[in-house]
């Protein structure tokens, strides 16, 4: 088995799509809309075949900041420590919050942690 995709509720579908396309080289499909349900989504595909579904629905609006039970983060692998550092600085310069500076973790990853436009954690690793 393999994970087919991960889905994420969002309040700003276009902003989130643009973020992942711009900084993580995702490719977005055409917008899907079901006006009866007030639902719209994009599937974002990454070079490795992984996919992220960004979803918005008119009745889903609760925002929670900080850590909470449930999914903690997604991790995106780069090819080198230099790539981790460069992407981290590119995101910082664009105004995104870096909540974990680049470092080697106890389990051997070199990583930084940034927040996407809605506060979801992304580990940038190699």
Automatic annotation (TrEMBL):
Gene3D superfamilies: 2,3-Dihydroxybiphenyl 1,2-Dioxygenase, domain 1
Record PROSITE patterns: VOC
Domain VOC as annotated: residue spans: 2-126
Pfam families linked: Glyoxalase (PF00903)
Transmembrane parts of this sequence: none
Protein name: VOC domain-containing protein
């Amino acid at each position: 088995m393999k994970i087919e995709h991960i889905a994420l509720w969002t309040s700003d579908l276009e902003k989130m799509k643009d973020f992942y396309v711009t900084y993580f080289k995702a490719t977005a499909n055409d917008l899907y809309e079901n006006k009866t349900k007030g639902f719209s989504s994009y599937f974002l595909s990454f070079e490795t075949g992984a996919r992220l579904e960004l979803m918005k629905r008119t009745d889903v609006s609760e925002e929670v900041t900080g850590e909470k039970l449930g999914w903690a983060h997604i991790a995106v692998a780069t090819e080198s420590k230099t790539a981790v550092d460069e992407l981290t600085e590119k995101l910082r310069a664009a105004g995104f919050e870096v909540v974990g500076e680049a470092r080697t973790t106890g389990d051997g990853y070199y990583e930084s942690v940034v927040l996407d436009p809605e506060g979801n954690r992304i580990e940038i690793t190699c």
